[in-house]
Amino acid sequence: MILFPAIDIRNGKCVRLIQGDYGKEAVYGDPLEMAKKWATTGAQFLHIVDLDGALIGTSQNLEIIEAIVQVVDIPVQVGGGIRSLEQIERLLAIGVKRVILGSAALGNEELLTEALKRYSESIAVSIDAKNGFVATDGWTKTSTETAVSFAKKLEEKGLQTIIYTDIAKDGMLAGPNFAELDVMNNATKMNVIASGGVSTTQDLAKLEQLQMYGAIIGKALYTGQLDLQLALKEVSPC
């Protein structure tokens, strides 16, 4: 199972939000320095979210993301406000390994279809759920589409990787929603990356038992509740 340290960028800073609430923010310094730290510690992959982009609807922190890609020697996946083919191509051009679509995948079928046609292995879709329904626009809106039905549609289109986040768990350090993750993982054959609530090595062991492809770790790393070196020792390398 791959562990993805999360770097959320807002106003040029590395931050963490509670349940996606832009009014509940903790600042943890420079995103570039955090990227170096996690890469040096042994991370296999970095997960970056442009929070400004997610809220506004277009990428806002490309310079910082490009600097991160250039300074670390591990792959980087990026999401947040990516809603055009041009933005996807720009991120891939600066060296991003995987581009994550969110709201765009739900509301723009043409974009998703073309992105998968051109860059299948380099595209992931983030399914953020609230009470089992897909949340959009930086978690500020909830659609009428269930997360599982949406995932199945994505798989039919040829998508290979999804990131599944239970908003109620994100930033709460209370453990992931294992039941929903298990349902999602068994509903499709796609690679499922668990996100939200991961805070202990026991959480990671359970996710590996459920055969998750990966797990994103956020707040627990920044508060010191979970040590990345110890966490990496708890999972089988991919």
TrEMBL record:
Pathway of action: Amino-acid biosynthesis; L-histidine biosynthesis; L-histidine from 5-phospho-alpha-D-ribose 1-diphosphate: step 4/9
Keyword annotations: Amino-acid biosynthesis, Cytoplasm, Histidine biosynthesis, Isomerase
Cellular compartments annotated: Cytoplasm
Gene Ontology cellular component terms for the protein in this record: cytoplasm
E.C. number: 5.3.1.16
Catalytic activity: 1-(5-phospho-beta-D-ribosyl)-5-[(5-phospho-beta-D-ribosylamino)methylideneamino]imidazole-4-carboxamide = 5-[(5-phospho-1-deoxy-D-ribulos-1-ylimino)methylamino]-1-(5-phospho-beta-D-ribosyl)imidazole-4-carboxamide
A Pfam family recorded for this sequence: His_biosynth
Active site residues according to the UniProt entry: 8, 128
Record family assignment: Belongs to the HisA/HisF family.
Name of the protein this chain belongs to: 1-(5-phosphoribosyl)-5-[(5-phosphoribosylamino)methylideneamino] imidazole-4-carboxamide isomerase
Source organism phylogeny: Bacteria, Bacillati, Bacillota, Bacilli, Bacillales
Primary gene name: hisA
